[in-house]
Design brief:
The protein has helices at 13-24, 31-40, 44-53, 61-72, 90-102, 117-126, 165-179, 181-189, 201-212, and strands at residues 2-6, 28-30, 81-84, 109-114, 127-130, 136-138, 157-158, 192-196. The chain is α/β, with parallel strands linked by helices. The longest helix is centred in the C-terminal third of the chain and has 15 residues, at 165-179. Bound molecules: BIS(adenosine)-5'-pentaphosphate (AP5), magnesium ion (MG) and zinc ion (ZN). Zinc ion binds at residues 130, 132-133, 135, 150, 152-153, 155.
Length: 214
Amino acid sequence: MKIIMLGAPGAGKGTQAKQIAAKYQIPHISTGDIFRANIKNGTELGKKAKTYMDQGALVPDELTCDLVMDRIQQDDCKNGFVLDGFPRTIPQAQALDAALKKISQTMDFAIDVDVPDENIVNRMGGRRACLNCGATYHIEFNPTKTEGKCDVCGNETVLRDDDKPETVQKRLSVYHEQTQPLIDYYKNQGILKSVDGTKPMDDVFTDIVAILGE
Ligand code: AP5
Ligand code: MG
Ligand code: ZN
């Protein structure tokens, strides 16, 4: 099963993608997590990506597309994958379709996690992320067992650099300009499904499972 998670920053793409990956036994591929891991490890890619991410802008397609195309051709993607944060522009979606076409495949589902802008800014201020393993928490909706420590790996959890209110606003406007057009792109392909992302996380997941099948 090959799935794309669409949705504004903070809509809950990552939260849901992790659960999908666990239930359907497919890898969770988050471009944001890949960039953050590169920043943490001080790679060239990380240095380049950071300048864009800190401003709430998109990392250029040249730096993003090849990375994803390489990743989805690895062995563990044979039975599918869930893409989180990619594609984010029409050219990225076209690059993905072209790469899949070469191996006579297509995407199965594009799931739009729909959350209005008003709800987003509040959510982001409460998010805490583990930069070591990628786990995500929320101080109110999904707290860690021990304050400030990741449940999975014990590392410190932090407010992401791009989760400051002004940067969140910028990311939202970038989303509306560059990413929202993908909703029509996948609607035209007949694979778009929408879920109400304002519901509690477990209910959102139940709705997704109803779409994907048990
Ligand atoms: P990325 O890491 O993808 O960030 P994003 O799209 O802005 O989305 P987030 O990760 O912030 O939110 P999410 O939807 O995953 O929500 P989450 O589940 O964490 O990208 C970061 C940056 O990298 C981009 O700005 C760009 O610069 C660059 N980049 C990445 N991919 C790129 C690409 N393809 N092309 C170019 N540049 C790219 O949930 C948010 C919070 O809400 C959490 O605290 C969570 O616990 C809580 N929450 C989740 N669901 C619920 C719920 N139902 N109710 C209450 N709280 C909830
Ligand atoms: Mg995410
Ligand atoms: Zn962790």
